[in-house]
Each structure stands twice: as structure tokens, then as C-alpha cells.
Amino acid sequence: MSDVDVSALTIAVLGGTGPQGRGLARRFAAAGLEVVLGSRDAARAASAADDLASVGRVRGTSNAEAAAAGDVVLVVVPWDGHRELLESLADELAGKVVVDCVNPLGFDKQGPYALPVEEGSATQQAAAILTGSRVVGAFHNVSAVLLEDPSVTSIDTDVLVLGDDREATDLVQALADVVPGMRGRYGGRLRNAHQVEALTANLIAINRRYKAHAGIRVTDV
Q1: Can you give the residue ranges of the Pyrroline-5-carboxylate reductase catalytic N-terminal domain (predicted)?
Q2: Which residues contact 213 (CB under 8 A, 6 or more apart)?
Q3: Domain boundaries, the chain
Q4: Where does the pLDDT of residue 220 fall: very low under 50, low under 70, confident under 90, or very high at 90 and above?
Q5: Which tens digit of pLDDT belongs to each residue from 10-25?
Q6: Gap between the Cα atoms of 123 and 116, Å rounded
Q7: Confidence check: pLDDT of 171 > 90
Q8: Which distant-in-sequence residues (6+ apart) come within 8 Å of 97 by Cβ?
Q9: Residues 6+ apart with CB under 8 A from 109
């Protein structure tokens, strides 16, 4: 358990109306954090926030307003809109810890697979665009189904946190630790983000084969 205190932070979730974004918002709000959901459609974000009102402090607005409001900003958008969104919000995200949660994946008849990314990974692309932000990669391998299910009281998985800024990675590890069952664990530098993002394709394949919601655990730490 981290000794970094995140209790006073506001957590913004860009793409907060999708399953992963809503699920993470649910868990952080339930842990007592203030959460701002962002969306291209502010009304849709407000509606999603209303659905979580009984869980904790959640409000919804535009992606731009959410980015400006958050102390820590999670990017949980589809890969095909990743670059465009971050380029449009570089000013709002300057000086903030930005957590990229995006997995560049493709799907065909053989199942899921990792897509090539010019910068190496979605996290590295974010770092290349957001030169004024402290970019960290995390929450890539967590099941949206479990996050969104209110009957699941413990998310028993480890979250690999990647980054070149020790203070920022410690902060994001502490953020993961507030969710019961979840542990934040340092997973390496930004240059190692590709394989963590790509691992989601393996987990989806596992889920399909075993009808499960697989996560990961790191042993001996």
C-alpha cells in the first residue's frame, strides 16, 4: 500500500462515458475521490454522472472542461480518436499528471491483436504530444465488466504503472491502491508500455476461451 495521499485529488476521466471510463469512475468515486467525467458530448457525460450519483461525487462535462478540472487526468478513449483528442487538449493538460489507459488493438477472424504505433505505444504517443504534461501509462489490463459491476466489491488485479517520472508513477500507483483488491505496481519506463498495452489482446483471448474476466498478478512483490 502506497504512503502517497490521493484523497484530496480530483480525478478526470476523458472518454468517461465508455465502459472502461465509467467503471474506473465508479471505483474512484466509491473510494471517496471527486471524479469528473468528460465526453465529446457534455450532456451524455452529465447523464453518465447522474447514474453514478449514488456511488460518490461524480459530475459530467465536456472533455475540455474535465481536463481543466482534473488534478490527475485519465485518457480512456478509443484508439482511433487518441491523437486528435490529445492534440486538442494540450493546453488544458499542461502541468498535469496524465494517465494513458488506451490499448491500440485490432480485431479480425483470428481474434484481438496489437496494432503498430509509430511512437511505440499509445502512452509514448501521448508523451510526444503532451510535452508539457507528466505522462504515465496505467489501467490497461483491468476488466471493464468487473469495474462496472456493483456486485463486485473487490477488483483483484495488479495495475502496471509505467513512466519516467518517479513522483508521477508513485502517485498513480497510489491511485490504483484506493480500489479494494487492486494494487499499483511499477512496470518500467515509458518505452516498456507497448507490451503492457498489447497484453490486453492476450487477456481478451483468455476471456473468450475461458468465459472469464482475467486480470494479472505480479508475484513476490
Answers
A1: 10-104
A2: 143, 145, 146, 207
A3: 10-210
A4: very high
A5: 999 999 999 999 999 9
A6: 13
A7: yes
A8: 71, 72, 73, 133, 134, 136, 168, 171, 172
A9: none
| Cα distances (angstroms) measured from residue 59 to each of 11, 45, 78 | 11, 8, 21
**pLDDT band at residue 1 under the 50/70/90 scheme:** low
Q: CA 31, CA 9: separation in Å to the nearest integer? A: 12
**Domain 10-210, architecture per CATH:** 3-Layer(aba) Sandwich (3.40)
- Residues shown for the chain: 221
Q: Which candidate, 49, 30, 55, 24, places its Cα nearest to that of 157?
A: 24
Q: 137 pairs with which residues across the strands?
A: 100, 162
Residues 6+ apart with CB under 8 A from 203: 141, 143, 214, 215, 216
Model confidence, pTM: 0.97
